[in-house]
Amino acid sequence: MSSNTTKNQPKLNFTGTKPQTKPAVKKYRPDTSDNSNSSMDELNSIHVQLQAMTDGISSLREDLKSMLRKDEIEQLITNAVTSLIHKMEQNMNKNIDKIVNEKCKEMQERIDSLDFENKGLKDTLQKLENNNKSNLKSLQEQIDRTDEISRMASKKANYNEQFSRKNNIKIQNIPENTDENEESLTKTVTGILKTHAEVDLQPIDIVAMHRIPTKQGQTRPVLIKLRNNSIKSTIMKKRAPMKNGGYKLVDDVTKPNQGLISRLHLHPDIQSAWYFNGAVYGQTVKDERIKFDIYDNVTGVLEEFRQYRRNGMQSR
Fold first, then answer.
1. Which structural domain range is residue 135 located in?
2. Which of 116, 195, 252, 277 could lock 168 by a disulfide, CB 3.0 to 4.6 Å apart?
3. Which parts of the chain are coiled coil (predicted)?
4. How many CA atoms lie less than 13 Å away from 203 in the CB half-sphere?
């Protein structure tokens, strides 16, 4: 029976670690019947144990079948992590896109607002520029009118001042005494005129007489204001004999007219310049005699004068 039972047991193929079992305890068998009964008991016990082992192994096999291999686990983890990262990236991209869109929208609104403000500023600046141009034009016109009025006023003032000096003459190089006074100066001047110009100047013909300032180290000229222009003309006609005597007779010319005469002397087309009867004249290298005013452009006046002559018009 023991042999048949053993033969009928299924053949087991174990893999892995062999499960530990308790070694069979050998019992003392005193006689044959006892031995036979003991053997049966032992076989039954072994059979039960073997059946339990078979069931455990089958269960273990099922468990092992359900378990994954290492590479499968790694692949599963990789797939899970990849999927998780992909989802995280999608969420992050969505959040980033949302934030970017919100910021872009906000920036666009600001840009639109700035464009609107910029357009308003441009319009304001254009209006200001137009107003400034208009104001500048108006101011320039006022300046031009003011300049013209100022020039006219200056010309009239110069003319009036020169007119007030029309009966004045200046005598240069008359020696100056330390104890000189108006009476002694008058006596000296009348004596010089009588001696060198043969002009008998009477005290009644003299309105005023005094010396005027000059450069340091030079003799101060004598300024004489005469009663009328006829007496002045009589004296001025004697400039040559007075010059021979070491004295110089000159007109009392205003500073603006003196400056004009100096400008005329510096011009290459002007040969000479002088004052006569309240006005300044210049003679060109072509023997053209032209009257000038204090604000005249010398070259412009010369061209204008010659244009008039070519057109047969009367010169100024």
1. 105-165
2. 252
3. 104-145
4. 7
Q: How far apart are CA 304 and CA 316, in angstroms?
A: 9
Q: Are strands 270-276 and 279-284 parallel, antiparallel or unpaired?
A: antiparallel
Residues 183 and 225 in one domain: yes
End-to-end CA distance of the chain: 170
Q: Are residue 179 and residue 241 in the same domain, yes or no?
A: yes
- Predicted confidence (pLDDT) per residue in 173-209, tens digit: 999 988 999 999 999 999 999 999 999 999 999 999 9
The identity of residue 22, as a single letter, is K
Q: Which of 141, 165, 189 is the last residue of a domain?
A: 165
List 169's β-bridge partners, or say none. 224, 251
Tell me the C-alpha distance between 58 and 51, whole Å: 10
Total number of domains constituting the chain: 3
* Cα-based torsion angle of the residue sequence 41, 42, 47, 52 in order, rounded to the nearest 10 degrees: 100
Q: Is residue 13 part of a domain?
A: no
Q: What angle do CA 310, 314, 316 make, to 5 degrees?
A: 110
**Residues 187 and 198 grouped into a single domain:** yes
Looking at the fold, whether 295 and 307 belong to one and the same domain comes out as yes
Residue 99 forms part of a structural domain: no
Neighbours of 256 (CB within 10 A): 19
Please report the pLDDT score of residue 236 as a whole number. Answer: 94
Task: With respect to residue 77, please indicate whether it lies within any of the assigned structural domains.
Answer: no
The whole-angstrom separation of Cα 294 and Cα 288 is 19
Q: Chain centroid to CA 168: how far? A: 59
Is 151 part of any domain?
Answer: yes
Instruction: Tell me which DSSP letter residue 13 carries.
Output: -
Residue at which a domain ends, from 115, 149, 165: 165
- As a whole number of Å, the CA-based R_g of the chain is 69
% of residues, the chain, pLDDT over 70 = 83
